[in-house]
Specification:
Number of helices of chain A: 9
Shape of chain A: globular
CATH architecture of the largest domain in chain A: 3-Layer(aba) Sandwich
Oligomer: homodimer
């Protein structure tokens, strides 16, 4: 008897689950994107999508229009190459299209769209040895909660169980979390590609959530709770990683970097803990006055093997980054400043990682 | 100068991102749950939530009601202990509340709610050595696409780099994917707990997406595309795992199990590949006629070290599972049949895994 693989009950259930009229956004050859949402009874529908069509400081959602079929449609202006978040608004309510891919950003799971980039391919998967990203649960005594660290290990880690590796601590931006560098940042793919080309030393990358609040965290003058991330990283994350993985010991084998808010954290932590880190990367995050961070330029120059700053010329923190560069120049602090056409988005940070990682852990 | 950690621009952005009036569902002591959605301008809002209040065959979303504050509110009847999916409908449009946790189920990222269970704690994290779940990318020649496998490795894997481990291949149900056993199933936590108690041999668990379509997949008589998952598992997944990880070779070190649709897959693959697997687990999936799968009871008894079937007595496949048990008894096929109060939901499958895993890989 040629019975079906799964009984009909299970398939009734399955069929019901997979019926959806939602369609992936269509990316046109010129970078415009057509979004379609099948919500025929909605009163109005709007979409908030980044790109040249909008900017971080003066951004309003765009109205979608209902077409003859009842679907809501919006076609954007050409968007910059790379990754852009988008979210939907229905009658003022903010939500995501959960029939299309979601990424943690904008402080919640958020839709993302990828515009092909003819000038950058470092983040596209290739037929090379692939590493992996591990989800590592641990209980934090500082936040008094279970947390997860994401840990990239290169293909060499599993291949050679005697080898030890240096570690890059790599932080996300505001509203993102420990998953963001791996998912929308493609950090693992970027490293796999660089390593396979011999451009980069195999290394472990540790990605933590950059928010760490104690249960009794008090608010500062601006009403924000005090973030204990630096304490968590130094007292819990690094010891856990060094206890658990085959890492090379010592500050010459540790780097810290981050993007935007995480770039600010990297600046503060890197410049404040010379005995822990030798390499410092700040991606679109050199937006603060560094007067209080650099007390002694000679010490910075002696202690850091690399102080790298990257920023796109169309990034809203670019002007501020130039001011930081001037401050560093005036103080005589050795650093590399890399600017490029680019905005405050993931395509810039993928580029930054692909340029920064090859400079790490070279004797 | 006591400059703020992050420049004001970045914080304006961050502040805008974190403003949300959404609240987590409130679980009452009797298992009722109050859901609140802040969508004051919606015309109507409904919620589809599993549990005793509904069943898989005759399930309709419940109407939410707008309260004085403008929030939409629904309080369920008491829900069974354990994990339940839920989704929202606004004016007929199906979506998730992406300010609350999402899990891949119902063929998309879907909300989930956890009702405490006074009788089962195997899935709650404890202060014991923790393993990890790895995200492993690979290119499939069968589907001609990049896929990801989730691989649980026990704490012993990293601790002792010379030790080799047996492998359980563990499949999700219909509408779920490779993330589901780790996230809503808590497979890693369950194993960590069992191993720490000495109840279970340390093992690797491999979780694949149970859907694998070739680009030219044809449809069968019922209009469904032919799923090449068995071929993918045998020809790509297992070789990849055995090449990449320190696994014990040989069929006596391999088990296959799955839930619901994945239980059907485990039945078919386990009973069809005696030289590959020695242990077979079918969780709420013994719903098919097994006449064509069991040609020779003596061979099954000789080849399989364990044939385990679990099903809740309130599961909609329970009657069918009893019929399968009778078939097996009539044919003289050795098996263990475990029934318990429980439905076709994750609490049953967490229980099944916690009972099945300790029976594996004992000499």
């Amino acid at each position: 008897m040629n019975a079906p693989l799964i009984c009909s009950l299970l398939f009734l259930l399955a069929a019901n689950l997979t019926i959806t009229t939602a369609v992936p956004p269509k990316v046109h050859s010129d970078g415009r994107v057509t979004f379609r949402i099948d919500a025929p009874n909605a009163e109005n529908l709007q979409i908030d999508v980044k790109g040249r069509t909008s900017n971080a400081n003066d951004r309003k959602p765009f109205d979608m229009k209902r077409d003859e079929s009842g679907q809501w449609v919006f076609t954007s202006e050409p968007l910059d190459p790379g990754f852009h978040y988008y979210l939907l608004f229905m009658d003022g309510y903010k939500f995501a299209d959960n029939t299309n891919p979601l990424y943690f950003g904008w402080a919640r799971p958020t839709n993302g769209i990828e515009i092909p980039d003819s000038s950058l391919d470092c983040y596209l998967p290739r037929d090379v040895p692939r590493g992996e990203i591990r989800i590592v649960p641990y209980y934090s005594s500082i936040t008094q909660s279970w947390r997860e660290i994401r840990v990239y290990t290169p293909p060499q880690y599993e291949k050679d169980p005697r080898k030890r590796f240096p570690v890059l601590y790599l932080q996300h931006g505001s509203g993102e979390n420990e998953t963001s560098w791996g998912n929308q940042g493609r950090a693992g793919t970027i490293l796999d590609n660089l390593i396979s080309e011999g451009k980069c030393n195999p290394m472990i990358i540790v990605m933590e959530e950059g928010y760490a609040y104690t249960p009794d965290a008090i608010s500062d003058d601006s009403g924000r709770r005090v973030n204990s991330f630096e304490k968590l990283l130094l007292e819990e994350t690094i010891p856990l990683i060094e206890d658990r993985y085959r890492v090379l010991a010592g500050k010459e084998h540790r780097a810290i970097a981050g993007l935007s808010m995480g770039g600010g954290q990297a600046l503060r932590i890197g410049l404040g803990n010379f005995d822990t880190f030798s390499y410092l990367g700040c991606f679109s995050g050199a937006s603060r006055d560094i007067e209080d961070l650099v007390k002694d330029a000679k010490q910075v120059n002696r202690k850091l093997k690399l102080f790298w700053i990257g920023c796109g010329t169309e990034d809203f923190v670019y002007e501020r980054s130039l001011a930081v560069r001037s401050e560093l120049q005036n103080k005589g602090v050795d650093h590399e400043f890399y600017s490029h056409p680019g905005t405050h988005e993931w395509q810039s940070w993928r580029l930054h990682l692909s340029l920064f990682a090859p400079k790490l852990f070279n004797p």
